[in-house]
Design brief:
Blueprint: H1 2-33, H2 40-51, H3 55-79, H4 86-124, H5 127-133, H6 138-175, H7 181-191, H8 194-220, H9 226-255
Helix pairs in contact: 1-6, 2-6, 3-4, 3-6, 4-6, 4-7, 4-8, 4-9, 6-8, 8-9
């Protein structure tokens, strides 16, 4: 039993290391393709498809996050006489962590799944093989535009999310907790710094890169058949969320140390 246990663990670790190596090679191939002239039309089309269509769900997520966060904290700050810090605390929390991480998770579910479903369907229907026959690199044609688009739209969505989250917090603080609007805005100016928001945008760029490349990787390597498309999509969402949380911890140590 003990031997079988370690055998299962070993197979799992080896498989994960093999996947990691393939993803690293895919990254290297993708960065090599960046030397070519970018396909602007494809990038803009992907920005519209992946970014604009995600604005509603990002807005709702951050709006209610700001509302709930303020509901949970404003009363406690008021009880200890620290109501003058509520706005600043909410802005810092959303700008540094909640904004980029929640946008990243939402995009992993919305954008990552869409990328994987599209590319895996192309693989199953042999469209990717047709690209290779026509001497068109699938990496240059499929991955690079999606990666660049995600690296642009995820930070933009994060900016929208930060603003909407703070607005949600302001609405609760003013109309429910009784904090004056002037005090709320003054505390943001007093305690929040620009790097609280720029650091979150740097995180969002990395999150967008990870979501796009993992989505393309699992799409290109999906098993054949309709079941394979669903399995690849699920793997993309799970892997992207895990990597986002790990990457967020690493970037937080680097940016805000």
């Amino acid at each position: 039993m003990l031997t079988k246990f370690f055998e299962v663990i070993g197979k799992f670790v080896i498989k994960r290391l093999e996947e990691f190596g393939v993803i690293v090679l895919l990254y290297l191939d993708t960065f090599k393709q960046l030397r070519h002239k970018p396909r602007i039309n494809h990038i803009v089309a992907q920005m519209s498809h992946l970014g604009a269509d995600s604005l509603l769900i990002v807005s709702l997520t951050l709006l209610f996050t700001g509302v709930v966060f303020t509901l949970q904290t404003a009363h406690e700050f008021i009880r200890f006489g620290a109501q003058s810090t509520v706005g600043g605390i909410i802005a810092i929390a959303i700008g540094r962590e909640l904004g980029p991480v929640l946008v990243g998770v939402v995009c992993a579910g919305r954008v990552g799944a869409a990328i994987t479903a599209e590319i895996s369907t192309m693989k199953v229907t042999e469209q990717i093989d047709a690209l290779r026959v026509m001497a068109v690199s699938p990496v240059d044609y499929l991955i690079v535009p999606r990666m660049l688009a995600c690296m642009v739209v995820v930070p933009i969505l994060t900016i929208f999310g930060d603003v909407i989250g703070v607005i949600g917090g302001w609405a609760v603080a003013v109309h429910y907790s009784g904090i004056s609007s002037h005090l709320f805005m003054t505390s943001i100016k007093m305690f929040a710094e620009m790097y609280d928001f720029t650091g979150g945008l740097i995180k969002a760029i990395f999150f967008g890169n990870v979501i796009a490349v993992l989505g393309c990787y699992y799409g290109l390597n999906c098993p054949n058949g309709a079941e394979g498309v669903g399995l690849a999509t699920t793997k993309t969402v799970v892997a992207s969320i895990i990597v986002i949380f790990i990457l967020n911890a690493v970037l937080t140590f680097i940016i805000y140390r």
